[in-house]
Amino acid sequence: MSHVLLAALLVASATATAQTSPPAPVPESATPAATPSAAPSTPAAASPSAASPLSPEAEAELARRLEAAKAEMREEIRAQIATQSLATASESNWQSEFTEERRKLEIFTLDGYLRLRPNLFYKFDLGQAPGRRLFPFTSPRSPAENTQAGTNMRLRLEPTFNVSEEVRIKLQVDALDNILLGSTPDSSFTGSDRDIYTIFSESQTPPASAINAFKDSISIKRAYGEVSTPVGMLRFGRMGSHWGLGMLRNDGNCVDCDFGDNVDRIQFVTEPFAGFYVTPMVDFNSEGVSSEVRNAEREPVDLTNADDSHSYVLAIARRDTDQQVRAKLDNNQGVLNYGLHFTYRTQRWEATGYEGGNFQGNTPTTAGFVPRDAKLYVPDLWLRYEERLWRLEVELAVIYGSIGNRALTLEGSVDPAQNQDLRILQFGGVAQGEYRLLNSKLKLGMEFGVASGDKAAGFGNYPRRRVANEDNEQLDGPQYTCAVGGCSDDAIRNFRFNRAYRVDLILWRELIGGLTDAVYFKPSLKYSIADGFDVYGSVIYSQALYAESTPSRTSKSLGVEVDIGARYETEDGFIAGIDWGILFPMSGLQDQGIPLDFETAQAIRGTLGIRF
């Protein structure tokens, strides 16, 4: 730029010099010459210097310098333009690349985790005789084997496709879901003729349903859309369902979860007042017989709406966001959240005998429709109050309804010994309390839970399992008693906690398969040794509500379990944990038919994972 200014000054100087007349020559006598205004009106003969102010050599030199200055100025201008163009182009390209990269990041985001879980179960039979054990899995080689160990894994992907700022698609995809490491060797179940003995197996094959596994390598569990509107958010598709503490409805999104509720739903979330949410929902629980099998490539048709089971749900809640909760707690303010989740579910008929495909045109004689005439009313109340040093959270639910015809087959629907009606009345609740000490490094907890039950034999957690011992006594099964002449017990009263709600490591998680027909108390503590490194422990006392539901038939006491563990998690998502539990069984778990001495059950669970 300095060269440009210099060239401009030279041009201006030369131009001014060319346009200005030179001073009159001073005569040797030193007498001033006459000025032009004093010249006579009659023209006089001009002197040679006045007629030609610059000599030809001077004019030529001036012209040469002027052209040189112009040329230099033109080169400087060209250089400046080129530099500015390059900078502008570079900035434009960078901005374009940044915008494109930002656009890519906004279009697709990915969450999820990878987990690996080694575990060891020891004496889960509790020392009881074969055929009288609560744990449903025993060694096929020898019933005397009492140690089972293995390692399983799961990769969970939860991508989000942001079509725009208001429209998005979300999925949950599980790969190698709870696959047991080493369960699909290349020498087994694949027709491989390379090896005779599995000892030579060097590789694992991808799991394929009905070939070398019971499920495929990849499972799409959820797929739904979200649309933000000025008045609320619309969600539709197959999605997770969660409410309150997860006692009744639990999405199973924790890293150590195995179960979780996936519902086919259309819902609309509105916020009429700040922090208050109203959400109407419609759930498609069961559509019954469809054309999907026969016409696999075309749009499936629900062949009849009479056998559909639908739920109409309304949730009303006062909730703060996580950021609002932290802000209030930091300012020593209390946080009160609460809500009501109400479900009405109905089904008029239920298809039976159509399992395994569509039998249009080839309907078996056992297929038909049972007049179910069933209704359920499910209110679920949740409340949470929290301050900086303590928290109290409660969830209470009731399931009330009826089933007009209990028959499970077409023939049974007209049999007076099988077509009685049933009543449903269940309740369950859980309360959690927590007190924080040492700047929240130490947390003392207390939990209490109850699930209603009745005097019917067995816990009723898996009523279709119908497990019976050698004396034909139910260890699990339906919680009503009906026969020819009527029902001596026509009510289903056992409330079942969601299987994704964790109480312990052994009794309810593994042996019985979920809390029902019982009450438990659980004091606990958790201490943060360092950022991301916690140790914790709990003691759980469990007792049945009715002794008739237990294997003993005479005692309610089920056992005391002690669970301890440690967990380490880094900011970049690495997780490592170890848990150990020991169950001291009590008299309620001792089979009355063959009373054997109890043996304590133990479990060790490890976790390695990466959360992203």
How would you describe this protein?
The protein has 612 residues and is mainly beta. The chain contains five helices and 23 strands. It has an 18-stranded antiparallel beta barrel. Helix 1 (2-19) packs antiparallel against helix 3. The longest helix is centred in the N-terminal third of the chain and has 52 residues, at 56-107. Residues 1-52 and 85-103 have low confidence and may be disordered.
Task: Determine the strand fraction and express it as a percent band.
Answer: 35-45%
Cα-atom radius of gyration: 42 Å
> What coarse outline follows from CA principal-axis ratios?
globular
Order of helices and strands: HHHEEEEEEEEHEEEEEEEEEEHEEEEE
What's the count of strands?
23
Mean pLDDT: 84
Query: How many helices in DSSP terms?
Result: 5
- Name the structural class: mainly beta
* End-to-end distance: 53 Å
Major pleated sheet: 18 strands, antiparallel, barrel
Low-confidence stretches: 1-52, 85-103
Determine the fraction of residues in helical runs and give it as a percent range. 10-25%
